[in-house]
Write a structure and sequence with these properties.
Blueprint: H1 2-17, H2 23-37, E1 44-48, H3 53-64, E2 68-73, E3 86-90, H4 99-103, E4 108-111, H5 123-144, E5 153-159, E6 170-171, H6 181-194, E7 202-208, E8 210-212, H7 218-227, E9 240-241, E10 243-245, H8 246-258, E11 264-268, E12 274-275, H9 276-287, H10 298-305, H11 309-314, E13 317-318, H12 321-325, H13 335-343
Parallel strand pairs: 1-2, 1-4, 2-3, 4-5, 5-7, 6-13, 7-11, 8-10
Antiparallel strand pairs: 9-12
Helix pairs in contact: 1-2, 3-8, 5-6, 9-13
């Protein structure tokens, strides 16, 4: 009876959207929501960092799929519009609080919280980067103790900075961590998340590449520069750039929620990294802005950005082997495809 009900309602969805240019997309979403409504795969999902660049996009994708989403925010703004299917709970994730009781009522936790690394690193800032990640993750794990014995999923953010800098070496999930500040930060961040396994929680460590999207991330910094015809390679331009389109990143989270056999570290990067000078050339072409300036010397970046400049002029060549091995398909496997979608 359930199967016939789903088929009949899906057929009506098909008939309704047949006249729409967005037919294929909406049909897929409609069927996934029908399946969730019939008791198939709907989850209660709790997100830290859910109002940020990545989190806000991911929230919409989760709601479209029929999931129930709760976003942790430091302060709820009166009258702020909530997406249908989403709710907010107030709290500071770096501190224990009542928000932990709400978290414990959810099937899946997506941990995106953490101060941005994209600025000059002072000792004070480095402490903020560390504490915002480690304290938040530790508090999440403590809250998960209340779910011991219940099926629970923790998808916790990390970064490809875990590997350190390896020149032209191919990097996969089983490579050892590096020895610089970001590598130590990512290692400790992951170690904090893995403690949730003591409570029977499935833990996935999502090592992000540079996220490319419309409302933030790297492109929000790069595009204004290129639009002024000032785009240029950084350093010698030979460093590798491992990246991910925001839609593919959101789809990875959906994939991980459904593929419960996947755990441990996952490289959330597109399958085609490229060198910085190649990125510069393609971004200029997509924006129709010639890139004629010489490379920006490393010492200039160091003056303005301090230690963080090393991240920009070294880079990593990272591949998403585990995702590909488990059958994930990237919608935007090359940077040109991604930039055309985002910028045109």
């Amino acid at each position: 009876g359930i199967i016939l009900s789903i088929y009949f309602r899906a057929w009506k969805t098909h008939h309704f959207f047949l006249k729409s240019r967005a037919f294929s997309y909406k049909l897929i979403i409609g069927i996934s929501q029908l399946i969730s409504a019939e008791g198939g795969c709907a989850m209660k999902v709790f997100i830290t960092g859910g109002s940020g660049f990545v989190g806000s996009y991911l929230t919409q994708k989760l709601i479209q799929e029929g999931q129930s989403v709760t976003i942790l925010t430091r302060k709820i703004k009166p009258g702020a519009p909530l997406p249908e299917g989403a709710s907010f709970t107030e709290g500071d994730p770096t501190k224990p609080g009542i928000w932990q009781e709400s978290l414990a009522q959810h099937d899946a936790i997506i941990n995106l919280a953490g101060a941005s690394i994209f600025q000059r690193w002072t000792e004070k800032r480095k402490k903020e980067l560390y504490d915002s990640r480690i304290h938040t993750t530790t508090n999440i794990v403590h809250a998960l103790a209340a779910r011991k014995g219940k099926e629970t999923h923790l998808l916790s953010t990390s970064a490809i900075g875990y590997y350190g800098f390896h020149g032209d070496e191919d990097l996969y999930e089983d490579n050892e961590p590096g020895d610089d500040f970001l590598a130590h930060l990512a290692r400790d961040w992951e170690a904090a998340a893995l403690k949730a396994k003591e409570y029977g929680v499935r833990v996935v460590l999502c090592r992000f590449g540079v996220v490319m999207g419309r409302r933030g991330g790297a492109l929000s910094q790069l595009v204004p520069i290129f639009n002024k015809y000032l785009g240029a390679p950084l350093g010698n331009g030979k460093q590798w750039f491992s990246w991910i389109h925001e839609e593919d990143l959101a789809n990875i989270f959906l994939f991980l929620l459904h593929h419960k056999e996947v755990d441990g570290p996952i490289n959330c990067t597109a399958p085609n990294p490229l060198r910085n000078k190649e990125l510069t050339k393609i971004l200029g072409e997509v924006l129709h802005k010639p890139t004629v300036f010489p490379p920006v010397p490393r010492f200039v970046l160091r003056i303005f950005l301090g230690e963080f400049a090393g991240v920009l002029v070294k880079g990593q060549r990272v591949f998403p082997r585990k995702l590909l091995d488990h059958g994930f398909t990237f919608k935007y496997p090359t940077i040109r495809e991604a930039l055309h979608d985002i910028l045109q």
